[in-house]
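INPUT
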Amino acid sequence: MDIESFRKQGKEVIDNICDYYQNLDQIPPMSVVKPGYLYKIIPHEPPEEPESFEDVQQDLQSKIMPGITHWQSGNFFGWFPSSNSFPSMIGDMYSNMLNIVGFNWICSPAVTELETMMTDWLGKLIGLDKRFLAVNPDGTEGQGGGSIQGSASEAIIVAMIAGREMTLDRHRGDNIEAEIDGMRHRLVAYFSDQTHCSGQKASNIIGCKACIIPSDEDYRLTGDALLDAIRRDKAAGLIPFFVCGTFGTTNTTAIDDLVGIADVAEAEKLWFHVDAAYAGSALSCPEFRPLASGIERADSFNFNTHKWMLISFECSVMWVADSTHLVNALSIQREYLPRVKGEKTFVKDYRNWQLPLGRRFGALKLWFMMRMHGATGIRANIREDVKQAKWLEEKLLEDGRFEIMAPVVFGLVVFRIKPAAITSTKILPIDECVTNKANIDLVKAIHADNRVFLVGTNIKGKDVVRVSIGSTIGTQQHVENLLDVVLQLTTSVIEQWS
Amino acid sequence: MDIESFRKQGKEVIDNICDYYQNLDQIPPMSVVKPGYLYKIIPHEPPEEPESFEDVQQDLQSKIMPGITHWQSGNFFGWFPSSNSFPSMIGDMYSNMLNIVGFNWICSPAVTELETMMTDWLGKLIGLDKRFLAVNPDGTEGQGGGSIQGSASEAIIVAMIAGREMTLDRHRGDNIEAEIDGMRHRLVAYFSDQTHCSGQKASNIIGCKACIIPSDEDYRLTGDALLDAIRRDKAAGLIPFFVCGTFGTTNTTAIDDLVGIADVAEAEKLWFHVDAAYAGSALSCPEFRPLASGIERADSFNFNTHKWMLISFECSVMWVADSTHLVNALSIQREYLPRVKGEKTFVKDYRNWQLPLGRRFGALKLWFMMRMHGATGIRANIREDVKQAKWLEEKLLEDGRFEIMAPVVFGLVVFRIKPAAITSTKILPIDECVTNKANIDLVKAIHADNRVFLVGTNIKGKDVVRVSIGSTIGTQQHVENLLDVVLQLTTSVIEQWS
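OUTPUT
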């Protein structure tokens, strides 16, 4: 494909993208293909000779699209949003054009420097404490700073590695290296039963123990529960080194007792990481910041702009208050990886802030998005989603058949058909087990109906329905349609049971 | 930015991309900005109100582009190529359009199934042993398969985690879990001094020991050297569990003694990973496959399509012969992550094959590229680069002033001004130290000249010049220009010394 063909066909792709977004309301949000569908309809070997753009394009429509669940649809309310925007897409097109492997400053100074500046922009946008910023107001280097990770999972791994380094380093003064080595398998990290599963996975990856602490009745990890667990583990000879607090859990968007956790982490010298993967975006609106009290005392903080801040997957931004332990743990020097001597602030080797070596020009889409939406546009997008979520909560309560399972704070509404709404002549009594079955049936009915898409989850034994509002092109009308579907199918489900 | 604005401005972006590629020969390949340049010319806060596309576009040209080193230029010969193609870019545009977070099959069946099929296509394209393929010829599930990782670094981490699981699992029969835990810090992984630094970094990340074995005079890790190291470590109470062989090292594209390593790995029950990050692409040409003997006995194999196979960064494909230990080590179940019951082959949960949870629709760009280039196009691209590299080697030898430091097998030419070519009335004798300085000066002179870009490296104490041929738009003419620059500046450097 030569330049002039791309000039023509690239524009066709732009048209196709626009048409896709224009027609999303006409497409059922969920793919209904059966496992193995694609194997039956595409060849099992790569073609020997080149095929035309038109042929691939046609197969994209006829063979790939049926296997797509449409995360960008206004009718998609599954998991958390994967919000996108045209400015972000443009940024990524340019990033692809340049196709830089930005493992250090020399690879392309703009890649490093724009990342430093965009993570500072973003930190300021969400009101992050200045200890997390890379550049001080006088232009000198801060101790901390942000960097773009692939995902919140990688951010937790990186934070745990920094925390491990911090803890082992503290013991290095008094011990020989072999003793330090012997401490490694006694290291323990703390999560709650509502922490994202990536915490436990990260523990498996770095090879430490994970202690999963039961959350309280509001699904929160508390400082008191953390302290109890630490005391028990220390008595058993373990070495606590890390705790993850969550600002907006996956199941209910609960907010952990961040102040209580910070107190314990300080006293016990734990690395305190805050995972705000989803809800961090809301901090762009000042009215949400009181909820985030305690974050200013964390060692690291992370949120996914690709969830709820109009950035295409993947772009997870992680800040540390002090990069020393992080860089010590992750830096490797080689002769083919030169380092520029100069002002440290602007020649950050971000490869030492992350797991891999290479990195995309990820800051470019942040730059396009933040400039073309402006802070007001970003805030308006969040506020509109929260307004729609509150509206949905109100209507569900008005209906009388539902209970809301957790406070609606952001864009997530978690509810279930309440036991009292289920009447049955066949099954008695209407206990939690029956209620669970009815709610699982409701989710199944919504999937079968396929006008809207959402997923269920299970919170402490209760099967519930989970509506996540945040599609970039979603409107109040989409939420009203969702409500219609839910009310109608709830009636069917209850009828089937009665 | 609404749909119709994107329809218009997205097409402008396509034009800009085409113009960029058309004009690359007119632009010096290396950025010459000074650290901190960007901080001085862009605001330190995000804008409150939205700005226009035109304004951002203009700033991209005037403020970002000066900070870019042009990896796509035909005059870029640095590190390893970051080869790209228009079909890959189109695939990525569609991936961005759909913006799916594909953590399991249900998120979009096509994301999982196309990945299974494209990694099999790619495996067949490079002649990989059938034990690495996901689907058997009869359509049933294989034990192995490929998956898309971000980078070769992540592939090594993942392989090491699988290897650790395999080794600890073998001890589980005879030991209680606490004893298994106590083994963790005695685990040791093997690399050579020419293995990519990501091996040592991965060891730091997963918290095991790394043993760096000296390579032989041809820069290869041999089975004998590995066996010696293992015997020594076992005598010291360590537990060998992993070895990384390299097919095409970073410094010289040396190929380790893969057969010898496979023998030792089998006998000692080590996980054998082959890192072919750069040179793996060459295996699309059958004439290179005899060099890869031994790979068929590896436990895992990886190469970066984003290096030399016309795919934009990042897309590193990793195959395992048996996914059991990998999935056991990396799978975490949660109620919001449902799994489809069905034909296992096509509902792979690739999140259990990698470090993060979420994943892009990466297979789409592989599909566009492999179809629109065809196997013949992919092979032609490799063969043309190798031909240019051999031509350059020949011309450098003809000149008489250079020595070639390692066999030119792929697209990399590593050479230096030889001691005998340096005459000096000021400095005597012309020893290795002087020769090193002359060659460092040559690299500096090439950077200052900035008609072409390359980097130097140091191989076992010798400073050398490294020319990596593989730019997608690079031609024989670009290599001829490079030769002119090298010859001319070598004369200047030698004159300065004499």
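end of record. Chain B touches chain A through 147 residues (CB under 8 Å).
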